[in-house]
Specification:
Structural class: alpha/beta
Number of helices: 11
Distance between the termini: 31 Å
Mean pLDDT: 95
Strand order of the largest sheet: 1-2-3-4-6-9
Shape: globular
Low-confidence stretches: none
CATH architecture of the largest domain: Alpha-Beta Complex
Helix content: 40-55%
CATH topology of the largest domain: 2-enoyl-CoA Hydratase, Chain A, domain 1
Strand content: 5-15%
Oligomer: single chain
CATH class of the largest domain: Alpha Beta
Number of strands: 9
């Protein structure tokens, strides 16, 4: 078995990080596998949703500290390696949000540091009861500056700052109340809950979800008036599609739509 397993079913790609002995840390190998797989999904029209999970005791414990320690042994003290590492990680995170398919994190155990960043980066998240989330780098003298980017765009800034400066964990229920995860379910229902959400999304018109996901993140970066101008243009484009016309007609006729573009 590889470090990242993929299974496709019902238009959903199920990706499983498979390094349980390292708590699915974002090692060089894991980052490369994730990047390669996400790149392959960019043009895969057979997949309309993605679920990302991890094996073993944890979803993801962040960067691989042992590997980072080895990188420090370079002549420059690791400066070039660390710069490259955080650039590669940032590229992978941004690729998730540039995918046409919504990505759902299926979270259990712990999601810490860059693992918490990964949850915050995914479009949606389902967690099992008992899961803990943290950006704990400050506890070892390494402020989670890059995880902070995704986290502070998901939850209230004062809560994010408290997590970053205290290194404290939040539990799944609190994470849901903050907006970091969408749903919290018993551990034995985690997989089915994530699958149900993914298959619901996958059942929608793929082209509409694609343009909607792109517009969602684009408008967040704009002032209010520009956001309305931009999304108005997106709505016009969407309304002119044949499948949108069919969807409206099907709704009015009280019948299932017959999509041409899935």
């Amino acid at each position: 078995m590889g470090i990242l397993e993929r299974r496709d079913e019902n238009a959903v790609a199920y990706l499983t990080m498979n390094a349980p002995n390292r708590l699915n840390a974002l090692s060089d190998e894991m980052l490369a596998a994730l990047q390669s797989t996400f790149d392959s999904l960019q043009e895969d029209t057979s997949v309309r949703a993605v679920v990302l999970s991890g094996t073993g005791k944890a979803f993801c414990a962040g960067h691989d500290l042992k590997q980072m320690t080895t990188g420090r042994q370079a002549e420059d003290g690791g400066k070039a390696y660390f710069k490259d590492l955080f650039t590669r990680c940032a590229t992978m995170m941004q690729t998730i949000q540039s995918l046409p398919q919504p990505v759902i994190a299926q979270v259990h155990g712990i999601a810490t540091a860059a693992g918490c960043q990964l949850v915050a980066t995914c479009d949606m998240a389902v967690a099992s009861k008992g899961t803990r989330f943290g950006v704990n780098g400050v506890n070892i003298g390494l402020f989670c500056s890059t995880p902070m980017v995704a986290l502070s765009r998901n939850i209230p800034r004062k809560i994010a700052f408290e997590m970053l400066t205290t290194g404290a964990f939040v539990d799944a229920a609190h994470a849901q109340s903050l907006g970091l995860v969408n749903r919290v379910v018993p551990a034995d229902l985690l997989e089915s809950a994530a699958s149900e959400l993914a298959e619901t999304v996958a059942g929608k018109l793929g082209a509409a979800v694609k343009i909607g996901k792109q517009a969602f993140y684009e408008q967040l970066q704009k002032p209010l008036d520009e956001a309305y101008d931009y999304t108005g243009d997106v709505m016009v484009q969407n309304m002119l599609w044949r499948d949108t016309e069919e969807g409206i007609a099907a709704f009015l006729d009280k019948r299932p739509p017959e999509w041409q573009d899935q």
